[in-house]
Design goal:
mainly beta; five-stranded antiparallel β-sheet; 4% helix
Length: 102
């Protein structure tokens, strides 16, 4: 998995591209990025799946903040991004959320 940050010089936002390789997707047919930047909506930020099974999507996030997120595969399997800037406890206590610092 990877996270690419592209800071825009003329705006107070950063374009963040999330990429999940086919091996990490583990044969999934669909994937979402779910986080506090989209109110933890499981449908707001779908990832596009390539013919090779690679998932990708981009979002614009405000600079100077931290955002928690996770990936959701096929509506039933959650995963974190190993390349996240750090990890934080979830309110449920049974897992961690990925954190990206912008």
């Amino acid at each position: 998995m990877s996270i690419k940050k592209q800071y825009l010089k003329t705006k107070e936002i950063c374009k963040v591209t999330f990429t999940v390789p086919a091996t990490a997707g583990n044969g999934a047919y669909k994937a979402q990025v779910v986080g506090d930047f989209n109110d933890w909506s499981i449908s707001a930020t779908p990832m596009k799946r390539s013919k090779k099974g690679i998932f990708t999507t981009s979002v614009n996030l405000k600079k100077g903040r931290e955002y928690q997120f996770r990936y959701l595969f096929d509506d039933d399997r959650w995963d974190n991004d190993a390349e996240a800037d750090r990890f934080a406890d979830t309110p449920y206590g049974d897992a961690l959320n990925s954190v990206i610092v912008i």
